[in-house]
Design brief:
The chain is globular. Strands 1-5-4-3-2 form a five-stranded antiparallel sheet, sandwiched between helices. Strand 3 and strand 4 form a beta hairpin. Helix content is 39%, strand content 27%. The mean pLDDT is 95.
């Protein structure tokens, strides 16, 4: 059963920057790759959103690809300095 866990925000932001710099980041605007990743990995965006809404005032969504430590589906809030990861 999957779970949603909190991750250390500043380490996550470093990993996100590296993923962005190396082209290993998918955002919701990248509709086809976004849907394909979630479907392939059997991840529920609505479930993750409900959990994020209970933790953050506002949040962003992102997928980090091909990273041994940080690869996965995240929701994070810059204002609340928090990040959540879908942990399959």
């Amino acid at each position: 059963m999957p779970r949603i866990k909190e991750v250390e925000y500043w380490s996550f932001m470093d990993a996100l920057q590296k993923a962005s710099d190396t082209g290993r980041k998918i955002e919701p605007l990248d509709k086809s790759p976004w849907r394909e990743y979630l479907k392939t990995h059997r991840m529920s965006e609505p479930m993750m959103e409900q959990f994020a809404k209970s933790r953050f005032m506002d949040f962003k969504k992102v997928i980090i690809l091909e990273d041994e430590d940080w690869g996965g589906f995240y929701m994070y809030s810059e204002d609340d300095e928090g990040a959540l990861k879908w942990d399959p």
